[in-house]
From TrEMBL:
Keywords: Membrane, Transmembrane, Transmembrane helix. The lineage of its organism: Bacteria, Bacillati, Actinomycetota, Actinomycetes, Kitasatosporales. The keyword Transmembrane helix applies. Residues 341-439 form the NACHT domain. This is Trypsin-like peptidase domain-containing protein. Residues 134-160, 929-965 are annotated as: Disordered.
Amino acid sequence: MTAAPEPSPEPLGFDPRRAVQVLVETDGGPDGGPGERRRGSGYRVTADTVLTAAHVVRDASSVRLRFADGALGTTEVPGTRVWSDTAADIAVLRIEPGPDRDRLPPRVTPVRFARVTGVVECEALGFPRFKLHRGPAPGHDRPSVPYRDSHHARGTTSPFSNLRRGTLELALRAPEYDTDGRRSPWEGMSGAAVWSAGRLIGVVSEHHRSDGLGTLTAGRVDRWYALLTPEQVGELGELIGLPPDAERLIRLPPPPGGSWLDAAARDLASWVERQWSEEERRRSVHDPFPMRVCFRNATGRFDNWSNVRRTPPSSGTPSPPLPLAGPLERIVEVYRSVPSRRLVVLGEAGAGKTILALRLVLDRLRAPVPGDPVPVIFSLGSWDPAESLHDWMRGQLVRDYPDLNVPSPEGGSLADALLRSHRVLPVLDGFDEMAEDLRSTALRAVNATVTDLVLTSRPEEYDRAVRAAGVVLRGAPGIVLDPLDPRDLATYLRRASPPAPGGDESSTAWEPVLRELARRPRGEGAENVARVLGTPLMVALARTVYQSANGRSPDDRSVPEDLLDVRRFPTARAVEDHLLAAFLPAAYDAPPAGAHAVQPRRRGWDAEQAAPWLGYLARHLDRLGQGGQVVRDLAWWELGTTLRRSTRTFAVGALAAVAFGVTTAVGNIPVDLVATAFPLGFALRRGAVVGVLHGLAAGSVFGFIYWWMSGRGRIKPLQVRARISRGAWKRRDEALRSALAGLVVGAVASTTLILLDRVVVSGLGLDDGQGGSRTAALVFVAELTAGGALVFGLTALLEAPLQSGSATRPTDLLNANRRRVAHRLVLWALVIGPLVGVVEGLWHGPLRGLQVGTVFGLEAAFGAGLAYGCGLTAWGQWVALARIWLPLTGRLPWRLMAFLDDAHQREVLRQAGAVYQFRHASVQEHLTGGLRDRTTAGSGGTSGNRAEPHPRHPSQDKDTGTGVS
């Protein structure tokens, strides 16, 4: 039998070898007549599944899948329908084992999906009726047989046709004849996958004869999301890799062509744009219009203008400064005017540096210039310069955009390749959030690593870093953000606030404040308010606090005019304190908005509940920072890690002990009842003792390993999925190392269990006679040792990089890690159970082998596998600490991810890829119990103590057409 060639790394999209002719037979009718024979087309989307149209396999009693390859002839295998939906007209077929199954390539590249937003070129490969021929066909001995050959249909499609039906109209080259007016020559093309730029955009479903022979209709991939339930979309995600929502589909065009690196850059640009467009919408940046933020040339320690302008040394004359001033809308224009493509953005806290970075990213992506690198925002607060900037940025890219973790043709990952080829523009946000003693090292590392860049910082922190490093950021001029103009502030507050009761549209609760600012700008109260409301952050907080129609804050004790009262608010710092303290009650006073908001049927949270939990999260980030480092990334896998290591080890070990102990106890009871003559009481007593002993042993072992791994920062989320991939064999060295580790673990675990059962359990008078001889003990140790090596080795081989088709959200990464733990449980059962069963069957007979294999398979999965998942994975650490321990002690809510998502909807948190962050550093610092000391000149604040925003929580004290079948 000829082996199938391995699929090549490219193309990543359409592969003609994976096109399928679907042959269907149905049962006879109720009158006993013959069944129907039907033909359609399909596409092999994964190693085991084929995508086709639902009407092709409707009422099918049998399905055959025929692959046609010019080199190998015809391969036909049986198929089974495993998923179907008539509304979307799509079905998934499983490729069943058969005599020719091995002729198919064992691995295929993953299919990527896209949505069409403009006119694009398209193609589809199917088996229509007009390709029916008679003659010698591959695989047949007869000289003349009827057969259908493939047809590669190419043309264009536009999303602006068939708007009422929501389908794609494919304009193709028409068949040259139509011999039968009753049957379409395209019959049999249904189910063919439609491709554009290497992405699957639809499935052929119909031919409307009134449209002409050169037109086909296809169901759109993005339309599936409106026709299917979220559960169905999730099922398709598991079966064929469909992204969980339509916003994660690649948008087409861009035009086809370019290298694989160009395609990777286009994908990254699409993901970044969708990610930050959603955040921009959620932050209400355009409600009712963006605040007018302006910037100007900064003075201070910046590089020579000749270096910025890249003036040749032979010019002999100094270069004049570039005019870099303008409003926020001109930031892309200003950046492009800098020949060095380097820029430093300075501004006080809340001045709008992050919003400027966001505007730069989105404006560049929405009006791209060929050859431009893709702008990506990196939060510098989490970078330790002990790690190279390249490696750190690669880790951030892989964390937030998992598709970049796949191998590139040149070696390494796509993230590596994009960084090496300078196709990423790093927007390094929050330089001032690094520890002060790290900034000078970081500045030198930035100079040595990247070319194009944008860096944001507060002015004083940047100036001190330059002085300490003794170097400037080469080729980088600076701009500084100005305070908001009072006239722009007045216009914004009038239009962004509801009219006062009984007043006209120009009468808002802010009128007394605005009149005072215009009349007496140097008045003591007016000057304090003007200074605070000079930054976009504080204006946004003030708008949230006084957003009711009567302009009162949620506690009904303050209106905007009160901010002018120097007795209550003697300093600008006091005004700022008041707005920060009142922000949470105001944010939780209104229901959250957005597609992912917590459902109304479920109980939500109020400010009194949310404040202590948010305070704990803020202090958690504060404790994560070391040596003055400011940590902003709220990662689910790190929640609880600031607890004492002994406390964390106890929680993780206890969970592993319960998982292993309960499973072992329950598993021993039926064994004693079936295999011995002992009564139920003995079986229960022995099961309880064995469960306690085994649980204590497992808890101690997994607790110790967790204690060692957590001290070295080894508990990280898995960026993998369970799937055989092309690169599996390349991971053989890693698999071998994992197998050796499993060998040791299996040997130690089995020896410990033997000693417990033979010594302790028997010493307590609970020997059930099942222990056997010394030989039986050695066989038991050998079984578990070999099983551990197999499980660990196969785990490394059967894991491929996680793919999402878009930016990853925190819940996406959490769910992927939970699924991976579940997959490992299944692997433990499928390896340990059969292995032990075969050995025991050869020794004691097949019945004994079946019994013991079943018990060991279940115990391995729900005992050892679950204990491993709970004790040594990021998901297990999350469960033990963030889902059990911290809620049990009152520090966090039980529905933690729902709480974080709710806070995101209320704009208390923001989302940055796979992590959350507080809306602004000032909000985070306020929730820790007090803002850090401000040493920045011109920060607009004076010294003073901050009051607790809320009392401390007690726990803190410690129409349809005819198918084309």
